[in-house]
Amino acid sequence: MKNLAHFFFEVGMLKRTPRTGFQFLGSGAESVAEHSFRTAVIGFSLARLDGQADVGRVLQLCLFHDVPEARLGDLNYVNKKYVQANEQAAVDDLAANLPFGEEYRRTLAEFSDCQTREALLAHDADQLEMILALKEYKDLGNRYADEWYPFAVRRLKTDLARKLAGDIWCTDSTRWWFDGDSDWWVNGRHGANAVDCPDDKC
Question: pTM of the entire structure?
Fold first, then answer.
């Protein structure tokens, strides 16, 4: 059980491991753990929409795909031009101390090989999470997001993800909470229930 405690502390390091691509985008910040969480939610959604993939397997691939970054850090596309990380060594070293080490090793290998339907969807979830972040920063005025978007789309593996990427890119990232209901934003009440009153009475 001690090794599991070590593993949980190691996974916790992902909360403090930054995604480093944002320094080149010029705005934004995200930890690897934050990225992995939304990737898993996206992966679950893609698997359900796909109708053929094993939903649990896609979730597992998404949750574990960046665990090695607790040891390696996050290497962005600029870093990878010059630095070659030994990810397999990081995977093997952790697997050697886990009671489910072989399953962990197979999970990372499946994600890396990108041959199964589940791995394709997990890869797409990973890229769609980036596309969502790009859209959020585009909506806040980052003009470089438009330049990054086509490259992220070209990395997508499935038609389902490509369709979703298009919908993401033409959706205002604030619409889910800011619906334009002026009565609510002025009075805290909807439509007919809104009551105007002097500021000192409310």
Answer: 0.90
